[in-house]
Structures are given as structure tokens and as C-alpha cells.
Design brief:
255 residues
């Protein structure tokens, strides 16, 4: 088994009077795993992390934890739960948020008469991003220049049509919140990568300019990209470099 295990305190060693033991199996280059990092940091939950290399076949010990071989996965014990395994990024993040409810990040269902509605709107926002915007990401990066510009414009249009209206009243975070919510935890890994990839040419700079013309999205995305819970494990240049290498490999294999 890998010994690349590190403790991340997130400024505390307990949460809501409970001292959970959480191990996060992750890779800092993976946007899906990034969701779990954001959630844990925003809720100040300490954890151990084990880095799973994604550029080679998964080791047998990890496939016993997650037979799909994907990240993130978590193992959690808290005195009631014992070594329970949770997989898939949105499920992992929502599970953590449900275990440690926070009225602004992800309110408990019965916390107030509007909590269920707030949760539904956050979930719909994240689902819309993945289904209507994120589908373009790899297409754009693999495309040649003319097609890249065209697809970049389609991303801007998708954000204008689908995301911009839902950010009306962002304050600066989703739903008027002054602090980050689960809606950001599930979308920020892609927002910050779009910016990094646009700045390095993996995605068109015209796309970034187009996104900047959307007042709600521009204000919101700047706040998201400045948020500590989003940036603390993210290295933009290194992530862009690895992604460029992966795209080149994919193109070569397709020939």
C-alpha cells in the first residue's frame, strides 16, 4: 500500500464536537477530487490524504477500496461509522456536507422551511454546469485553432444561457451567500481550470474575454478563484502543463 499519507488539519482537529477519522484518496490534478478538498476545507474538517497516481494502473490495494479506480474516495470512522467507504465526487462532497451541516454551505434538510429548496437549487446549479457547460472542456482543448475558437464561443453562450441567470443575486457566492457553498465546491474545480487553461492557450483567450462580459458570472468566478478552499491544493501552471501533455498524448493516440 502507498505510504504517501499526509495530515491536513484545515485549522482544526474536530468539527461540531466530533473527531472524525477521514482518509481522502485523491490526486491534486483531478478536478473531480478537487471537489472533496474544497468541501473539507470550507467546513474545516481535518483529514488524512493519500495521493493516488493517475498516470499508471491502479494498485490492487486501491482497487479494493474503489473497484472503479477513480478518485476521490473517502474512508470514514467516527465512533458510529467504522471504515465506511464513499466514492464518486458529488456523492463524497454531499455526504461530507450532510455529516457536518452548515447553514450557509449546505443547510440540513429541516433546518428551516426553505432549506430543501436551497439544497435543490444548489444541486440543480451543479448539475447544469456539468451537463450544459463542462461537456465542452475536452472538446475545446483537443480542437485545432479555428474549431477551438468556435467551441470556446459555445461555452460562453452556454454559460450566458444556463449559468448567468442562476447567479443573479450572488453575494458574491451562490444564492446571495457571503461564504462559499456546496454549489461552488462542485463547480469551482472547473471554473478555476477554465481560467488557467485559457491563460496558457489550452482554451481560447477569447473565451475568457467572453466570460468576462457576463456580469454575474464574472463577479462570481472572481470570488470563487480567490477563495482559499479552492486554491489551497491547486497549482495552475502545473495543472495546465500536465493537461497539455495529456491532450498531446490523446491526439497522438488518435492518429
Amino acid at each position: 500500500m502507498s505510504t504517501n499519507r499526509q495530515h491536513v488539519s484545515n485549522g482544526t482537529d474536530s468539527s461540531n464536537g466530533i473527531a472524525p477519522q477521514i482518509t481522502l484518496y485523491t490526486n491534486h490534478g483531478c478536478p473531480w477530487a478537487h471537489r472533496a478538498h474544497i468541501t473539507l476545507r470550507a467546513l474545516k474538517i481535518p483529514y488524512e490524504q493519500v495521493i493516488i497516481p493517475l498516470d499508471r494502473p491502479r494498485e490492487p490495494w486501491y482497487l479494493k477500496i474503489n473497484p472503479r479506480g477513480l478518485v476521490p474516495s473517502i474512508r470514514i470512522s467516527n465512533g458510529i461509522l467504522q471504515d465506511e467507504i464513499i466514492t464518486e465526487s458529488a456523492i463524497v462532497s454531499t455526504f461530507i456536507a450532510d455529516m457536518f451541516p452548515n447553514s450557509t454551505f449546505w443547510p440540513a434538510t429541516r433546518e428551516s422551511p426553505t432549506s430543501a429548496l436551497t439544497r435543490a437549487r444548489m444541486a440543480f446549479f451543479a448539475d447544469t454546469w456539468v451537463g450544459k457547460v463542462n461537456t465542452y472542456m475536452y472538446q475545446v482543448m483537443k480542437a485545432e485553432e479555428g474549431e477551438k475558437e468556435k467551441l470556446g464561443a459555445e461555452i460562453v453562450e452556454a454559460v450566458r444561457k444556463e449559468i448567468e441567470p442562476m447567479l443573479d443575486g450572488a453575494g458574491p457566492f451562490f444564492g446571495g451567500s457571503k461564504s462559499i457553498t456546496l454549489a461552488e465546491a462542485l463547480t469551482a474545480p472547473f471554473v478555476i481550470r477554465y481560467q488557467a487553461f485559457g491563460e496558457t492557450g489550452l482554451m481560447p483567450k477569447s473565451m475568457l474575454k467572453g466570460l468576462d462580459t457576463l456580469p454575474n458570472y464574472s463577479k462570481w468566478s472572481k470570488a470563487v478563484r480567490a477563495e482559499d478552499s479552492v486554491t489551497y491544493v491547486f497549482d495552475g501552471p502545473a495543472t495546465a502543463k500536465r493537461m497539455a501533455e495529456m491532450i498531446e498524448k490523446m491526439k497522438a493516440e488518435a492518429k
